[in-house]
Amino acid sequence: MKKILVCEDEAAIREFVVLNLQKSGFEVAEAATGEEAVSLFEKQGDFDIALLDLMLPGIDGIEVCKRLRSKSDTVGIIMLTARTQESDKISGLSSGADDYMTKPFSPSELVARVNSLCRRMGVSSAKNDGSSDSITHGDYTLNIRRRCLETPEGKSIELTQVEFNIMEYLFSNYGQPIDRSKILAKVWGAEYYGEEKIVDVNIRRLRMKIEQEPSEPKHIITVWGRGYKWIS
Ligand code: CA
To answer: What is the pTM assigned to this prediction?
Structure first.
């Protein structure tokens, strides 16, 4: 059974989310504050997904996201935002979230988004048991088993699930431009509700991790009018 951490300070929304997830067969733990969510995560740790409200009374959802992400690269994180917090969505994603949902949302959208993230994560972990353990291009190796990128300097860069899936897609199509819409469909799934901008946000984060000069990328190259390609 997939285990979900729900952090939301408004009791009515929290209850709505918790009940609907439980009805769909998820095991749910709930927190009313960010501090509570972090401590639950530290104690139990085996969550598959965390749903984090952005605006919280103590530490906010972005801080919670950063702290969870520093403890786990594998947990899927969805930020819950209000309609007026458009720019916060982006900062939430840069802090390590995999997806965001705008309130209010319907029970079916909630369950669809959680299922979609679970599937994305499941697909990738299933692949980890496959025959090839790594893909190498030049001095860079994408380590599939450990889900990290090994650099010529001998560094091993840990990637989140989404970052890894993007890298795997680019690596498997070495040097070829991949359309943003294709990356979106491959990594987020054809049923994803969101916008292509989410691809750029994750690319920006990958560049921060991988490139020496993120503003002048030498590896994750923008192909104007198309998308991105990887060059080692
Ligand atoms: Ca709130």
So the answer is: 0.61
